[in-house]
């Protein structure tokens, strides 16, 4: 006999998760796609401000994932360290470490790529962090950096842990002393009220009561559709944009 009350509760749970997922916009999927293109097969990667390493936990590269000791919602927790060391993540070769971006505990010229996704605005001495990034990168290495765009997202619109937001000019000025080649792109999103890196937990074996489709498959389809739609609307825009992406290559080290 079907438990109607239980099914109704599950439907509400699914709908709530679905709403949160849509609030996430195409943020996570777009970032992950770009990073997958940025990281090559044999690259040794440094993921700065990695938290639970949402963008590198599935790749097969050797990844050193660093973050500060847990403070509020930021930094590694003991549980996230254990999760990264679990057998299910061994294929990704992730090495989690407590470390500070302003004083990286590594020798010179050892990483092929560096990821700094939504972290730069949290670093007090950003110039020192950029110098450290250039120091530990190999001669032909590169850094992938994302940060809020000051032109459309004022600092008082960010969270309290942000020291600053950057315009395109600010980013170029920051990275020019340490890198030879800098490319900056703007990202546009229909839904700006994203919940970064937070995916609802949904059982893959369960289906919506009214729609016989696995929820993750349905969400994946919607993500692809919205991402396709957004790229065609905003591809020719040169001003504004919620987010900036900087690819900084060839460190001056």
UniProtKB/TrEMBL annotation:
InterPro entries to which the protein is assigned, alphabetical: Methyltransf_11, SAM-dependent_MTases_sf
Protein name in UniProt: Methyltransferase type 11 domain-containing protein
Domain Methyltransferase type: 46-144
Native species: Candidatus Fischerbacteria bacterium RBG_13_37_8
Gene3D superfamilies: Vaccinia Virus protein VP39
GO function terms (MF aspect): S-adenosylmethionine-dependent methyltransferase activity
Superkingdom to which the source organism belongs: Bacteria
